[in-house]
Amino acid sequence: MNQILLVTDGGSNVGESPVIAAAQAFADGIVVNVAGVVDEGNIGEHGATEIAEIARAGGGMSRIVTSRQLSQTVQMMTRQTVVGTIRQAVNQELRQLFGVESVAALPPAKRAEVVQVMEDLGETSDLRVALLIDASASMKPKLAAVAEAIRDLTLSLQARAGQSSVAVFHFPGDSDREPCVMDCSWTDQAARIEALFGRLRMRGTTPTGPALARVTEFFRETCGKIMSEPVQPSAPNRRDDTDGVRSDYVV
Amino acid sequence: MITSSDRQLPPGTILNGKWHGKSYRLERLLGVGANGQVYLASSGRSTCALKIGMETEELQAEANVLASLDRRERGRPPFLLDVDDAVVGGREAPFYVMQYVPGVPVRSYLRQHGEQWFGVIGYRLLKRLAELHEAGWVFGDVKNDNVLVSSYGRVALVDYGGMTAAGRSVRQFTEIYDRGYWSAGSRTAEPAYDWFAVAVLWIHVLDGKRLMNLSRMLLPQNRHPRELMALVRSNLLLKPMEPWIDRALNGRFRDSEEACEAWRSCLQTAQEAKLDKSAKVPGWMAGLFALSVALCLAAGAFWILK
User: Fold this and answer.
1) Are residues B228 and B117 part of one domain?
2) Residue A186's CATH number
3) CATH number of the domain that B12 lies in?
4) Does any CB of chain A come closer than 8 Å to the CB of residue B64?
């Protein structure tokens, strides 16, 4: 299972559309989630719409949160995406094999068995999450929260039984020809990620689209040809997109 | 966040089970969990707790945990009574039915009955956790709301949404009780994960305000068990339990049995220390006595000399 998690605080302003880039990533089997971080002021209508659109095109979910809520949100989205991906795959199998619409259509006794299998899959399947961090000037005060969210996510992923790895990118890159920079390639070690942002140079532009495209390319380079086409969810059964707000994380 | 499951169902709502045909009458809302609401309900003449949510898979996963606990711990009445779907407000919703556990959260219990109950409650809680650990489970989401206390400090755990098979990643936790949050270890389900949460539970219950302040003020990189210990040392009620809490926060028990025994002996020591204190004659009383003797002698001497 492959995911990109975009952390940003506003709209893109350079290069191709991030919505198209997210659609391309999803076509490559990568789910794109977006966390919009806003502490004071407003993210703006353009930014808010774009964030929601990126997630929709990327088959994932989006949330606009304050930096205090970021750790929990990142956790929750990653987890929900794993659950959602498995649910889609299982429901597809159920449709094909038994002509049953979804798990909910099974009698409780059968449901218990299927859910057991789904839980096992969720815990043991391999998971790769590439974090793409907006490092434009306005993000500077939020970077500590971003670093903490990454630490927290790595901690949770380490506890999984399946193999989990995290890679970290930030954008914009150092030159205009580089949309983003890799800070850390696939790792399961939280220690390697800490103190990552010390050397970050904040710059003005926000090339969200080209950066997303670059990370998608990175998946293709490092994970070979990923699965051909993600399971296309049929519209009425989609329950894990942005409007089905839920959380399995309580405070 | 606003979810459709935030809407309360009015008392008197009848749920008719689609698969097993049982019907339930909702009496009142007991609480709201991470993925559903729990109601006190009645079916015929019996009372039960009913959890209704939106996510079939999540509710079923919880029901699975209860069912497997029931299989492991035969010889007691089962926790899980029914799993079914019902039409509520025009849409089908999954629900499951559990044994109703009366009681109030630890904090409220201590407020009503006095803080001196915490020793016995703590011991019973550890005993219950030890049983789960013995069966290969970790409770995961130990917190005030999930530990219900009824008459004479009887303890029951509710909300098994966090319960995880040992060795896997904890399914659900609460930030401030999580040892990962305090940079004190992983989120892998193991008995030590629960011990840590129990230690935080007592800090939360007996010194909640300062704990909340601490977590709000500390920078993430400074969150550490020693900060919690500093709090423990400066609280009159927690201070006697310092040795136990220190071991729990650092996962230094052989197993949960030892955690129980250590709790007991810690209480014992605290009690003895208290006894010693009250048995000793306070300084002011001795002083007054000496003064009165001196006064008597002086008066006597004065009378004789006169």
Assistant:
1) yes
2) 3.40.50.410
3) 3.30.200.20
4) yes
CA distance B176 to chain A (A): 8
Residue B126 sits in the same domain as residue B90: no
Q: How many Cβ contacts (< 8 angstroms) between chains A and B? A: 92
Of all residues in chain A, what percent carry a pLDDT higher than 70?
Answer: 83
ipTM, two decimals, is 0.79
Is the peptide bond between A172 and the residue preceding it cis, with omega within 30 degrees of 0?
yes
- pLDDT band (50, 70, 90) for residue A187: confident
Chain segment A157-170, per-residue pLDDT in tens: 999 999 999 999 99
- Is B300 among the domain residues? no
Q: Is residue B286 part of a domain?
A: no
Q: How far apart are CA B173 and CA B193, in angstroms?
A: 10
Q: Residue B175 and residue A251: Cβ atoms within 8 Å?
A: yes
* Min Cα separation B107/chain A (Å): 17
Q: B168 — contact with chain A (CB < 8 Å)? A: yes
Q: What is the reported pLDDT for B176? A: 96
DSSP, collapsed to helix, strand or coil, labels residue A65 as strand
Q: Which of A35-44, B205-214, B222-231 has the lowest mean pLDDT?
A: A35-44
What integer is the mean pLDDT of A126-137? 92
- Say whether B141 is catalytic: yes
Specify the residue for token string 């409770």: B139
CB pair distance less than 8 Å for B57 and A148? no
Residue B82 sits in the same domain as residue B179 = no
Model pLDDT for residues A211-239, shown as the tens digit of each residue: 999 999 999 988 865 554 444 444 444 44
The CATH number assigned to the domain holding B220 equals: 1.10.510.10
